[in-house]
Design a protein that fits this description.
alpha/beta; Rossmann fold; 6-stranded parallel sheet
Length: 363
């Protein structure tokens, strides 16, 4: 092809494109988001730890990928996860032992015995102690994962007596103060709040600019519409449900839309031959596995026909799997040639190792 074609690369500035800047904005998850994220991450590690112990890690690739994907969604919005999100967590519906004085008394006596008392499953002092009908105490998480997923009975780890999840009891809460109850109303996720603040700052600096927000998850684009409209932004959406004719109409409408308009675009449909030069700001809600896909999305805006300098912003949740994805991508840059020489089987093995490193099992 080199003998019959002429290739002009953007890096050589042969077509005089405006400049492009890329920056990373770190944000902190709220207290409730952090608590849920940490619980889910700990739960995911327990699963992977078991797969490693049982030598089943390679055969459970899809499930480990599913666990990683859940953590990525939690960094955006817990509403992205299915309604059975808590199915991977120890249940909060374990019955209160206060209605069973003999169980509650036994639990209090054993917990006050001293430091020698440990959970029979993990060998450590019990956390969130749960007592069984056979009067044995375990960590809530330990006994929850020990018992089958379905409501079948299994022998108690201490005495072998049949027990099930419906036969677990926990200590009553320390306080029933109404001020301590959790709010049931939905609050704006931290990442959405950070995005809105960035969009407002951008509109102050340049009120005529338009923006494109890219996300891996189509549902996230839907969830973004209401808070952005409530903040005063005009929005358009381009996702997998839009056919080719609809895409062309939305892109044309975006080009003639009023300043400050935000286009919510999906990675799945918005990176192939689409011209979004009407925008000069790009926001990437999640770090993407494939750097090439990310570049293609950015190049929809930073391409021939662009008149303004382009600003690209990555939104990354602090102390989360998103930071580890960025670190992994940086490592892969250095070893990209080695990966390309490997066969399909080797690439798959590297992938499962990568997933485990994202869960902090190894680096």
């Amino acid at each position: 092809m080199a003998t019959i074609s002429l290739r002009r690369i953007k890096d050589k500035l042969l077509i005089g494109l405006p400049s492009k800047t890329v920056e990373t904005v770190s944000l902190q998850l709220s207290g409730e988001e952090r608590e849920l994220y940490d619980r889910m991450e700990s739960s995911s590690k327990d699963f992977v730890d078991y797969f490693i112990f049982a030598d089943r890690l390679r055969s459970r690739y899809s499930f480990v990928h599913f666990l990683v994907l859940r953590l990525r969604k939690l960094c955006d919005d817990s509403a992205l996860c299915s309604l059975d999100l808590t199915s991977l967590l120890p249940s909060d519906n374990i019955r209160d032992a206060s209605k069973h004085p003999e169980l509650l008394g036994k639990m209090i006596d054993m917990l006050q015995d001293g430091e020698d008392f440990v959970c029979a499953i993990c060998g450590c002092p019990p956390t969130d102690a749960v007592i069984t009908k056979c009067l044995h105490i375990f960590c809530k998480r330990c006994i929850w994962y020990y018992l089958p997923r379905k409501e079948f009975e299994k022998g108690c780890p201490s005495c072998g007596e049949p027990i099930s999840k419906s036969g677990l009891f926990s200590a009553p809460p320390e306080s029933s103060n109404p001020e301590n109850t959790k709010k049931t109303s939905r609050t704006t996720p931290s990442k959405v709040s950070a995005l809105i603040e960035l969009l407002k700052e951008s509109s102050v600096v340049n009120s005529s600019s338009k923006s494109v927000v890219f996300s891996l998850f189509d549902k996230m684009l839907v969830l973004l519409e209401k808070p952005l409209k409530d903040a005063g932004f005009n929005t358009l959406r381009l996702d997998a449900s839009t056919d080719e004719r609809g895409q062309a109409e939305i892109i044309k409408e975006f080009g003639s839309a009023r300043p400050g308009t935000v286009l919510l675009a999906s990675l799945k449909t918005s990176v192939f031959g689409i011209n979004l030069t009407a925008a000069s700001k790009v926001y990437l809600l999640e770090p993407w596995w494939n750097t090439a896909d990310e570049e293609r999305a950015i190049n929809c805006v930073h391409r021939y026909g662009q008149k303004e300098n382009v600003r690209i912003v990555r939104l990354i949740a602090q102390n989360s799997i998103e930071e580890r994805i960025l670190e992994m991508k940086e490592r892969k840059k250095l070893a990209s040639e080695a990966f390309r020489r490997q066969g399909q089987k080797e690439r798959r093995e590297v992938s499962i190792d990568d997933l485990c490193s994202l869960l902090s099992f190894w680096t």
